[in-house]
Amino acid sequence: MRSFAGTVAAGVLIRRVALATSVAFGTFLGVVPLGAHAADTRPDPLKVVASFSILADMVEQVGGSQVQVHSLVGRDADAHVFNPTPKDTRELAQADLVVINGLGFEGWLERLVKASGFKGPVVVASEGIEALDGEEDHDRDHHEHHGHHNDHDNRHLHDHGPIDPHAWQSLRNAKVYVANIRDALIEARPQAREELTARAASYIVEIEALDQQLTAALAVIPENKRKALISHDAFGYLAHDYGIEFLPVQGWSTGREASASDVASLIRQVRDGKVQAYFIENMSDARVLQRIADETGARSGGSLYSDALSAKGTEADTYLKMYQVNGRRLIEALQ
């Protein structure tokens, strides 16, 4: 005869075996035990559409697992001559949030939004930066930029106007982009505030560290040697931050080809200004640039990344890696 304690112990054992068997059998049949959904309470990622690859990366860096990002203009692609596809229209229609650069960069966006029927929030990542203005004048001997507050009204969706839209080419502006993206994601997903705030803060620390490194490295290069020939005028903010003079073959938009007089003027400027290096871009036609280099003796400094990241797994597949590559090549060529 079993003791009372032995009977209780045996009963507990039987119940444990029975429970384990029922759970296993229920799982086999597709029946989920109580409490099994506890780990699946996290909401689906926010569907975010970014206008081009650099913004898409910023959203991913801040959003992490909270976001699923689609970039309208892909890697190594030119946003200035972008033609949306039916897939882009579908992605936009299903989005929870759209992130754009603003400053007139996405001239095609208004038509695409209308075609998709998207009614959700559109975040202008450049909101609050000090935009640079100037003129698309290829005969100028140097570029003079003045601070201009960004008002982001509707005309910016139609043309570049007098404002340089490539504001992400300043690491200091990038911190503003990140803050705007963070705030928009928190508004869309307030329960993830702590995670999104921490990720944005960590990202900004990395941006600031890179800015400090480049400032120190470029400061030792004599000012009269900080000159370079480039494909199109996409580096005005970088030039402004680090005291570099860029001579562009094209203006702000790659959609306009350089004329014969533009090329002749640049050849004179390169010779007069003793520009020793030229750079091509990952999404530009380098033939005109090569012609100028052949006639002036300027040497290649390699590729710079302006409006698009490189393919995943390559040297410039994130915003920070892109900026590191650009900075390193400029320093090596201008020394």
Automatic annotation (TrEMBL):
Q: Where is the composition biased (Basic and acidic residues)?
A: 137-163
Q: What does the entry give for GO biological process?
A: cell adhesion; metal ion transport
Q: Which UniProt keywords apply?
A: Metal-binding, Signal, Transport
Residue ranges annotated as transmembrane are: none
What is its subcellular localisation?
A: Cell envelope
Gene3D superfamilies per UniProt: Nitrogenase molybdenum iron protein domain
Q: Provide the Gene Ontology terms for cellular component.
A: cell envelope
Q: Which GO terms describe its molecular function?
A: metal ion binding
Which Pfam families does the annotation name?
ZnuA
Region (Disordered), start-end ranges: 136-165
- Highest taxon in the source lineage: Bacteria
Q: Which family does it belong to?
A: Belongs to the bacterial solute-binding protein 9 family.
Name the PANTHER family on file: HIGH-AFFINITY ZINC UPTAKE SYSTEM PROTEIN ZNUA-RELATED (PTHR42953), METAL-BINDING PROTEIN HI_0362-RELATED (PTHR42953:SF1)
| Name of this chain's protein | Metal ABC transporter substrate-binding protein
